[in-house]
Structure formats: structure tokens, C-alpha cells
Specification:
Blueprint lengths: L2 H4 L6 H20 L2 H16 L5 H12 L15 H16 L20 H15 L8 H5 L1
Length: 147
């Protein structure tokens, strides 16, 4: 039998159960005011967090490390970049791309438009350029090109 049914003076089980629960909650709240009870409860909670199968502390440390919020820890030279460090690096890259480029720094001569579409056309265009620039005109005839 439960403790609720053994209490004398209660007419029904539900009234006794409510009264018993309320008194136990009141006792617990009164105990929570005691510093000794608070320290023991804190130890229980700390132990539960430290030994949890969810690995709460490890997960929290990983999150702090990724966000760069663990400023008190010592970083090695080859540490994994935090999210704020990655954002700063990407911002520098974007800034360097969007800065105006002067023409003097780069050789920006206009190029001849190329309408070559196939490998054969590309080879033919290269041959024509080679023949125009490298071979004197009097040494070659149209029949030599066709062969």
C-alpha cells in the first residue's frame, strides 16, 4: 500500500495525495534555503553534467572553440580557425578583389576576337597565323597549303 492510503483523517485518496505532494514540495523549498543543502544539490548537478552520456561539457567546449569564445585557452600556432577568424579572412579576400585595379599593373591590351569553335578550326587558324608571320610569301603557294 502507498503512504497516501495510510494517512489517517483523509476522506479520499486524491485529496490526501494533493495534500501530501504540497507538503513535500513545501518541505523541499524550505530545505533549498539551507546553504548546506544548496551545496549538496550543486554537487549532484555538477556530477550529472560531468558524467552525462550526452557529453555536455565536451560539446560546449567544441562550440566555444568554434565560435572563438574561449579566449582564456592557449592557442597553438596551427590551431583550427574559429568562425570569426574565417569571416575576417574571407572579408579580407573580398576586399582585395573589389579594390580598383589600375591598368598599369596588368597588361590589358585588347585581344582579337576569336570565333574558333572546333579543334580543326583552331588548328587551321594557327596554321594561317604561322604561315602569315613565319613563312615568306614567295616561298609558298596556295597549292602547298591545300596539300
Amino acid at each position: 500500500m502507498s503512504a497516501v492510503l495510510l494517512e489517517p483523517g483523509c476522506g479520499t485518496m486524491s485529496v490526501c495525495a494533493i495534500a501530501t505532494k504540497e507538503s513535500k514540495v513545501q518541505q523541499f523549498l524550505a530545505l533549498m534555503e539551507e546553504p548546506e543543502v544548496q551545496s549538496v544539490l550543486k554537487l549532484f548537478i555538477d556530477n550529472a553534467i560531468a558524467t552525462s552520456e550526452l557529453k555536455i561539457l565536451k560539446r560546449l567546449a567544441d562550440i566555444e572553440k568554434a565560435l572563438g569564445l574561449n579566449g582564456f585557452s592557449d592557442f597553438k600556432e596551427d590551431h583550427e580557425m574559429t568562425i570569426p577568424e574565417q569571416i575576417a579572412l574571407l572579408a579580407e579576400r573580398v576586399d582585395s578583389i573589389t579594390e580598383p585595379v589600375s591598368i598599369q599593373e596588368h597588361d590589358l591590351r585588347p585581344m582579337k576576337a576569336c570565333t574558333v569553335k572546333t579543334t580543326l578550326e583552331h588548328k587551321a587558324a594557327e596554321l594561317v597565323e604561322h604561315l602569315k608571320n613565319k613563312v615568306p610569301l614567295q616561298k609558298i603557294s596556295a597549292n602547298d597549303i591545300i596539300k
